[in-house]
Amino acid sequence: MTSSRKQLTSAEKSKMKKLALKARQFSHSPYSTKKIGSAIRLSNGKVYSGCNIENASYGGTVCAERVAIWKAYSENKCDIKITHVVVASAEKAPWPPCGLCRQVIAEFGTEQTEITLINTEKNEKTISFKELFPLAFKPEHLDK
Known about the structure:
By secondary structure, the chain is an alpha+beta fold. It has one domain: Cytidine Deaminase, domain 2, CATH 3.40.140. It has helices at 10-24, 64-73, 99-108, 129-132, and strands spanning 37-42, 47-51, 82-89, 114-119, 124-128. The chain has a five-stranded mixed β-sheet. α3 links the parallel β3 and β4. The longest helix has 15 residues, at 10-24. The two termini are 19 Å apart.
């Protein structure tokens, strides 16, 4: 299983930020009116993006981070880990992943997965997943 975190070049990080910001354009968010985009990078180097897709039933709504993750894992083996996540919003302080998205990242990422929060004004904050979610519930917690 590959779980080491590769440092991204500035060009790679810039590409991920652009993808996350572009993904916002496809957001279906008529209820919250909040357009969110995300890009994730896997340990095999592949990058996927997604946007939030809302539904009138609310429970059918899926966040941008999970859309990108579903796309990635529907095309890759599950032993490949998420190394980087970018979340893009238009909010004054860039938004972090919600609790459900954090739990999904815990399933497919590592404590070292890098989380970058950006907004349309180029404000940015980068932290490790462990900093974002220090006591994540992980598969190893389950009695198999």
